[in-house]
Amino acid sequence: MRSRNSEWLAPWEASNPEPGGGLPDYRHMVRSLNAQAAQGTALPFVITEWTPGHRNPVIVGQLTVSSIVWGSAMMATLGYWVDKARAGRGIAPTSVALVTDHCFRTLGLHRMEINIRPENGPSLRVVEKLGFRDEGYRPRFLHINGEWADHRSFALTSEEVPEGLLARWLASRPS
Fold it and tell me: How far apart are CA 59 and CA 165, in angstroms?
């Protein structure tokens, strides 16, 4: 699924700014994420969906909580992607809401951030649907698809969703 979506994800893909530096292959990426999870600095998730005719859920994307900072900050950054064939069906906002609630309620984090390229309309729609606060423009913030790219930064604190983000998201959807 990841390779099938490579063209769809390329404009938003993190890249290595070091001369001649590439990104690790899939196995190395998984090992690195597992090591970060063991250190308490990241939480990697796969996004799954139950599909009629399948015995088990199907992987339809990935969500990673990264840059977890403990102590006085108690915050993290969220990144996600969903299979192009399943985009626009509420999977990304539901996944972001579930993981944000886990980070706030179970881990005790206080703040979640999402940084999005201004051209990434579908991801901008996710944070809009969920009510993340737009905190401004970050020029040349992350190295994406081979160049330093501008981003918009969005955030949400636990006090802003006392009922939980998933509950708020589900209540806002038409029945």
Answer: 23
Task: Give the tokens for residue 97.
Answer: 């809401």
Architecture field, domain 6-172: 3-Layer(aba) Sandwich (3.40)
Give the separation between CA 171 and CA 165, rounded to whole angstroms. Answer: 10
Q: What are phi and psi of 37, to 5 degrees?
A: -65, -40
Residue 92's pLDDT is 97
Given a contact cutoff of 8 angstroms between Cβ atoms, the answer to whether 162 and 104 are in contact is no
The secondary element (H helix, E strand) that includes residue 7 is helix 6-9
For residue 38 the two structure tokens come to 């063991």
pTM check: above 0.85: yes
User: Which pLDDT does position 74 carry in this prediction?
Assistant: 98
Integer-rounded Cα radius of gyration of the chain: 16
Domains of the chain, residue spans: 6-172
Average pLDDT, the chain: 92
Find out whether 119 and 149 touch, Cβ atoms under 8 Å.
no
**Token pair of 63, please?**
């969500």
Element of type H or E holding 44: strand 43-49
| CA end-to-end span of the chain | 30
AA letter at 88:
G
